[in-house]
């Protein structure tokens, strides 16, 4: 959609430009136009049809002169930039004479809800997660407030997939914990718009990010990836399993230089939460099980004898098919191939 | 040295300190008593640490009357702030200092823990070093026993030595009733309700560590500070863990997730 009147903004890009909406990705129109991706949302959102039309900037079907209206449309949309939305309502009123102002504010909030729910599905699709990875690389989601994580970049997550339950949180892959965003403007953003799955799925989809890198470091040097020869453990690069935990990353309480004993009533009780085995292979439960129960499976035992650490594989983790397809953008139908959206 | 004016100053004795603790960015500091500042024993060793020590002390105690140019005044001013910070680190571990900081803690004036599972528990300021100009101030959460960076940059630039490495631990020794109950609540990364294997394996290992500690403490009959019912819940959940094997081929992400949908 481009007209002579400068660069008109779509509803989606103006929504993402609002203060507090910095974490949102711009959902592609193809994704929204595929009804399959919207399965079940009709029942969750009031005035669904109108809300969907608002998101896609399309005129209601009963409008006759579509082409002329489209021009109009674009002018009106630029009003969306104003945060107080007065311009939107005004412009939209001119557009739909029959519609009441109160109706429009209902549709507006329905549209936001619908966009959020679509967004939850979109960022788990291939195109969506790719877009979020670019935002992650630029550090758009901020960094971990924990001192020992040394400003590791975070990911926005929800603690529930149902809207209205909790606000958006930040998941730190370096300490595997969730934090309240530092700025209060994010406390009005629903966590369900990001969903419970995105954070963990991101790490499985992009296993090669160096999780300890800060946003600033990445901008100066182009290489924020883990080298290929890293050991793989439990399906992830061993280096990337909670790199901000364990050893020197655990706070040791001291009084005048003396450690506070565990036996003191005020002694440390929570160090396990920030702990990580010194030799990370301790987490290879399958290998340990086989070592302790040598006769359980003969086949595996044979392969163990061959290279000692059979289960510390060097296969790159993640979905190989997914990685191959990352470079070209396919049809919206292909998005469902990783089974992400359909299972909700 | 001790030439402070003793008469007619009761109304504005704490003029400089009032200004200091009420100015923007100094919200973490409490007011040091006049008595504490004028007892030279409390200031032992600080004269070598602070430039223009005597003028700085005069300024802090509001008896400064040197006629000097603006540059000099600015230098003395910054020395006074440094001196105040260093005395502050000593003062807040005294009985009176602890009560003042306790009041601020109860009002959550040092901020609240950003960790979701700490449910906005109030924080305490602390330093990672007692030597000045090394590490900026950090915030300690007594619930998760971890350190966090202050949200605002004007707090992030305060010297950690003005609070010291011991204060936040001493306060809980002096007021054991303040020790918050510990919680095993934690975030577990999931994909469509399934736990991610790498994270879940780490969580299981950490849980073993925790249970070891609780067993050690139980043997010594020391209270661990955890609520009992939480432990049982966790044990039940552990039983549900079923490894989830791949559904579509070797390379599927599904191999990496486990457990049942919650």
Automatic annotation (TrEMBL), chain A:
Signal peptide: none annotated. SMART domains: CK_II_beta. It comes from the Eukaryota. The keyword Kinase applies. Keywords: Kinase, Transferase. Residues 311-326 have a biased composition (Basic residues). It holds the Pfam family CK_II_beta. Residues 59-81, 294-303 have a biased composition (Acidic residues). Tetramer composed of two alpha chains, one beta chain and one beta' chain. Regulatory subunit of casein kinase II/CK2. As part of the kinase complex regulates the basal catalytic activity of the alpha subunit a constitutively active serine/threonine-protein kinase that phosphorylates a large number of substrates containing acidic residues C-terminal to the phosphorylated serine or threonine. This is Casein kinase II subunit beta.
TrEMBL record, chain B:
Regulatory subunit of casein kinase II/CK2. As part of the kinase complex regulates the basal catalytic activity of the alpha subunit a constitutively active serine/threonine-protein kinase that phosphorylates a large number of substrates containing acidic residues C-terminal to the phosphorylated serine or threonine. GO terms for cellular component: cytoplasm; protein kinase CK2 complex; UTP-C complex. Belongs to the casein kinase 2 subunit beta family. One of its GO terms (biological process) is regulation of transcription by RNA polymerase III. Keywords: Kinase, Transferase. Residues 225-262 are annotated as: Disordered. This is Casein kinase II subunit beta. PROSITE patterns: CK2_BETA. Tetramer composed of two alpha chains, one beta chain and one beta' chain. Pfam families: CK_II_beta (PF01214). GO terms for molecular function: kinase activity; protein kinase regulator activity. Residues 230-246 have a biased composition (Acidic residues). SUPFAM superfamilies: Casein kinase II beta subunit. It comes from the Eukaryota. The keyword Kinase applies. It comes from Trichoderma guizhouense. InterPro entries: Casein_kin_II_reg-sub_N, Casein_kinase_II_beta-like, Casein_kinase_II_reg-sub.
């Amino acid at each position: 959609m481009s007209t002579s009147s400068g660069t008109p903004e779509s509803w989606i890009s103006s929504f993402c430009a609002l203060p507090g909406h910095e974490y949102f990705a711009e959902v592609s129109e193809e994704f929204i136009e595929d009804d399959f991706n919207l399965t079940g949302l009709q029942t969750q959102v009031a005035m669904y049809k109108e809300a969907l039309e608002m998101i896609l900037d399309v005129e209601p079907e009963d409008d006759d002169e579509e082409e002329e209206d489209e021009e109009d449309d674009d002018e009106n949309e630029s009003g969306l930039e104003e945060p107080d939305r007065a311009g939107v309502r005004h412009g939209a009123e001119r557009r739909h004479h029959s519609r009441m102002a109160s109706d429009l504010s209902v549709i507006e909030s329905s549209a936001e809800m619908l966009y959020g729910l679509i967004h939850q599905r979109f960022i788990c699709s291939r195109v969506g997660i790719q877009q979020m990875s670019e935002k992650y690389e630029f550090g758009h989601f901020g960094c971990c407030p924990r001192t020992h994580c040394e400003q590791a970049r975070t990911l926005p997550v929800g603690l529930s997939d149902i809207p209205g339950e909790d606000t958006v949180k930040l998941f730190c892959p370096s300490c595997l914990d969730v934090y309240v965003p530092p700025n209060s403007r994010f406390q009005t953003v629903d966590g369900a718009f990001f969903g419970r799955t995105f954070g963990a799925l991101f790490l499985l989809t992009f296993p090669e990010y160096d999780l300890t890198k800060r946003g600033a470091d990445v901008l100066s040097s182009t290489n924020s990836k883990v080298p290929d020869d890293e050991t793989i453990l439990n399906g992830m690069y061993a280096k990337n399993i909670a790199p901000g935990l364990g050893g020197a990353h655990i706070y040791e309480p001291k009084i005048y230089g003396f450690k506070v004993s565990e036996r003191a009533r005020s002694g440390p009780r929570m160090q396990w939460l920030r702990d990580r085995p010194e030799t990370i292979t301790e987490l290879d439960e399958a290998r340990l099980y086989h070592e302790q129960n040598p006769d359980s499976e003969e086949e595996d035992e044979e392969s163990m004898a061959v290279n000692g650490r059979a289960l510390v594989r060097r296969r790159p983790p993640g979905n190989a098919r997914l990685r191959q397809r990352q470079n070209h953008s396919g049809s919206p139908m292909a998005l469902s191939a990783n089974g992400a959206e359909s299972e909700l | 040295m001790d030439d402070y004016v003793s008469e007619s100053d009761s109304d504005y004795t704490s003029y400089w300190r009032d200004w200091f603790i009420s100015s923007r960015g100094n919200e973490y500091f409490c007011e040091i008593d006049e008595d504490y500042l004028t007892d030279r024993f409390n200031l032992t060793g600080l004269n070598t640490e602070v430039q223009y020590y005597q003028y700085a002390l005069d300024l802090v105690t509001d008896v400064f009357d040197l006629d000097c140019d603006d540059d000099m005044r600015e230098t003395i001013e910054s020395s006074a702030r440094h001196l105040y910070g260093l005395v502050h680190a000593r003062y807040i571990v005294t009985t009176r200092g602890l009560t003042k900081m306790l009041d601020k803690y109860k009002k959550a004036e040092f901020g609240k823990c950003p960790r979701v599972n700490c449910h906005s528990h109030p924080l305490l300021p602390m330093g990672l070093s007692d030597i000045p100009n090394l590490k900026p101030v950090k915030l300690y959460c007594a619930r998760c026993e971890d350190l966090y960076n202050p949200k605002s940059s004007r707090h992030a630039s305060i010297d950690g030595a003005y609070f010291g490495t011991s204060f936040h631990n001493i306060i809980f020794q002096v007021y054991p009733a303040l020790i918050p109950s510990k919680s095993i609540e934690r975030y577990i990364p999931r994909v469509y309700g399934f736990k991610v294997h790498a994270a879940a394996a780490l969580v299981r290992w950490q849980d073993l560590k925790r249970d070891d500690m609780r067993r050690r403490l139980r043997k010594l009959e020391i209270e661990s500070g955890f609520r009992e019912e939480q432990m049982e819940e966790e044990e039940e959940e552990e039983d549900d863990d079923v490894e989830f094997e791949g559904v579509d081929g070797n390379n599927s992400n599904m191999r990496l997730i486990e457990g049942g949908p919650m």
